[in-house]
Amino acid sequence: MALLEVIDLQQQFKDSYSLKSVNLNIEKGDVFALIGPTGAGKTTILRLIDLLDQPVSGRILFDGIDVTKSKSERLKARRRMAYVQQRPTVFSMNVYDNVSVGLKWRHVKRQSIKETVEQALHLVGLADHRKRDAKTLSGGETQRVAIARALVTKPELLLLDEPTANLDPISTEQTEEILENIIEARQTTMIMSTHDRSQGQRLANRMGVLIDGDILQVGTPAEIFRSPIRKRVADFVGVGNMLDGVIEARVDESLVTIQVNGNVLQAISDFDEGEKVWVLVRTEDVTFSLHKTSTSARNTFEGPIKRMTPVGTLVRIEIDCGFPLVGVVTAKTVAEMGLETGSHLFASFKATAVHVIHRRN
Question: Under the phi-then-psi rule, with left for phi > 0, alpha for psi from -120 to 50, and beta for the rest, what region is 181?
Fold first, then answer.
């Protein structure tokens, strides 16, 4: 039985729906990342799951019990959850007292409070800050106080709303490391919302893509990023190459040829001849060379470089081979190959690297 079931959940603000029939199953031990752009409805879902708000319609089952409307069941369920908001607040007291406040409200014995709080402070790296005024902490430290305050209640479900959205890169890295340690040490069931696609990949074992109040796909990070089922999902996760094509012919049981702007490429697909499709190829699956070489890749195209865009230590290269094709190489490779705008390149990718979805998606 799932720890949490969300069934046909809808939420409405004024005259528009912010959530449209959302369905989710969260198993015990899951680390589930809810990814999507700003304004997609991620915070709305977390507030409903934490039973802070009432949905317009739908049900929430916690550990098999419907907690949507019953006040007593909602209270019982809320005591088994913890919610860390995007902009957490701290009280005008020291770090230790901020972390222990929830246990004091629950009338936990003093010695038990001390042991539990000390463990949490060590876990989030704030043991040396226990006596510091919490109001003087940095944004990253404040976030860690909020996480520790949630952990001391030993929640069966931990909810995190954009846990690193307002942090600098170093604080983000520290917070992610703490979350990884919590996942490993506590095995706490966790739902986190984030607009950072790579963060979801790093931390979660399952993901859901939320866009405009709709969950468009749920799966493992590999399924979401390698095999998106809709164009809007592919757009959000950054596939890189999205080409409109038509299935031309079937080569064998699994291999087809696809017409793309007068060019023919090969892909693995079960679509029939004549079907209109989107052809998806991730940038990291494209290989560039200065000369045509013998390769196992079934797809090789050539053309001039139209754009070169630095992206961190990598360079994004777009060539015009009858259609725009994008790949990435290291800055060192650019220098070694003497690449510049207008340079002629050959680009290759395997038929298995092509993901094909129906154009209606």
Answer: alpha
Residue 207 in 3-state DSSP?
strand
Strands (E), the chain: 4-13, 16-26, 31-35, 57-62, 65-66, 81-84, 157-161, 189-194, 206-211, 214-219, 240-250, 255-260, 263-268, 276-282, 287-289, 299-311, 314-320, 324-330, 344-349, 354-358
Structure tokens at 174: 């520290």
Sign of the dihedral through C-alpha 191, 34, 205, 175: negative
Report residue 193 as tokens: 């919302």
Kindly provide the b/e burial profile for residues 147-185, where b requires at least 16 CB atoms within 10 angstroms of the residue's own CB.
bbbbbbbebbbbbbbbbbbebeeebbebbbebbeebbee
Q: Angle, nearest 10°, between helix axes 110-123 and 95-105?
A: 130
Copy the structure tokens of residue 319.
Answer: 């060539």
Tens digits of pLDDT across the chain (361 residues): 799 999 999 998 876 678 988 999 999 999 999 999 988 899 999 999 999 999 999 999 999 999 998 899 999 999 999 999 988 889 999 999 999 998 898 888 989 999 999 999 999 999 999 999 999 999 899 999 999 999 999 999 999 999 998 888 999 999 999 999 888 887 889 999 998 888 989 999 999 999 999 999 999 999 999 999 999 999 999 999 999 999 999 999 899 999 999 999 999 999 999 999 999 999 999 999 998 877 778 899 999 999 999 998 899 999 999 999 999 999 999 999 999 999 999 999 999 999 999 987 6
Please, are residues 216 and 35 in contact by the beta-carbon 8 Å criterion? no
* Residue 199: both structure tokens together: 């963060």
Q: Is the dihedral of CA 104, 106, 110, 113 positive or negative?
A: negative
Is the distance from CB of 5 to CB of 66 less than 8 angstroms? Answer: no
